[in-house]
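Example record

The entry below shows one chain as it appears in the dataset: sequence first, then structure tokens.
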Amino acid sequence: MTQQFTLTSRIKLANGLSMPRIHLGVYMTSAQETKNAVHCALAMYRNEREVGSTILQYLSGNSNASQLKREDIHFTSKLASNSSYDAARKSIKQSVQECGLGYIDLFLLHSPYGGKTARLASWKAIEDAIADGEVKTGGVSNFGVKHLQELLASKPRFPPAVNQIEVHPFNTRTEITSFCQQHDIVVEAYAPLVRALRMKHPVISSLSKRYSCTPAQLLVRWSLQHGYVPLPKSVTKDRIIKNGEVAGFEIDAKDMEKLDGLDEYLVTDWDPVDAD
């Protein structure tokens, strides 16, 4: 039986909370594009204000036919850089204020850069933000295995529930994803569509035809079947909707292996997973 994944599907986190199985990425989008994309997707990179205000406008407006409430929305933001505890705590408070949503559902350390002391101090700031009700769930981004081991070894009050990393068939990061799954850390896959760099790859084209889906849908489905939370980015209504329409097919085991075999360690943006 085909496992059903839709834009309303959720995955349970280690802290008992949950988050959507498919997210909307708004990295490097303009203010107006962000507003349009968020509005379409409602069925951070310095754009917290635009995302938050659009969410609030939607919830209180006539377009909210489903009568969604704040608790139905999952909003993620990040700490731009690791430094001191005070700087991180101040930044989190500013993010909560900027978005205007009352709290942030998932707050991530953007990268492991800054060194061990800065990483652990910044994580303590997230823990205190969780304790103070400003953040629901804490996670990390671009963390390699050694960074995750370091954080877990520090005996955190709130272990990271999510690691957001670049993952797709052309960069499977098996070591990191396996470690995360062994330690109940959800892998959130950014750039799951490979930033459109491999849409015409022969294997992608062939399997898209076999399953009567778009290359983007194939890549999203691959991510979901591995247990990841894909973060496809789009600013157009049609593509946002299509990216979530992956319930009608399931990639069989042999084809999943074929997609896994495409790994070439293709990095489409940056790669801090080995940072000191």
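Notes for this example: The beta strands are 10-12, 18-20, 76-79, 104-109, 135-141, 162-166, 186-190, 229-231. The longest strand covers residues 135-141.
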